[in-house]
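Review form for a predicted model. The reviewer records the input and the model, then writes brief findings.
Reviewer: anonymous (R2)
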Amino acid sequence: MKSKSRRIFFYDGDCGFCDTTVMFLLDRTNQNDLHFARLQSDFARSLLDKNKVKKIDLSTAYYYDGSEVYKESEAILKALSICKNPYRALSKVVQIVPLGFRNRAYRSFAKYRHTVSSRLKQNCRILATDERQRFIS
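Model under review:
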């Protein structure tokens, strides 16, 4: 499958909260609906650069829908919109909140994401083969 036809969620691979978010999305999307790539990867740098993201911000998530890149709250809502319900419905409800307000809230939370991740009880999950195939290096 070419990257042009994939929906890809880009995340900070050094952030525990971001890893938890990826596992959440992995469990709530179908196998071919969403793929994942660390922002620190060569693939992320290449694809995002081709899509006019010149400077990658590790404090935000990015979502690529096959033609356009979204960031911050839009990236999260786009990813949630392909999840199973009730998360798909929740993404539609949250979209009524103005983008500027959503992104300010997103950036405020992003400042503390490492603090939040240090307080999460995280288990090391061993991915099944089909799950590992959804991650792009």
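Findings: The helical segments are 16-28, 42-50, 72-80, 87-94, 99-111, 113-119, 129-132.
Further findings: The first helix runs from residue 16 to 28.
Recommendation: see findings above.
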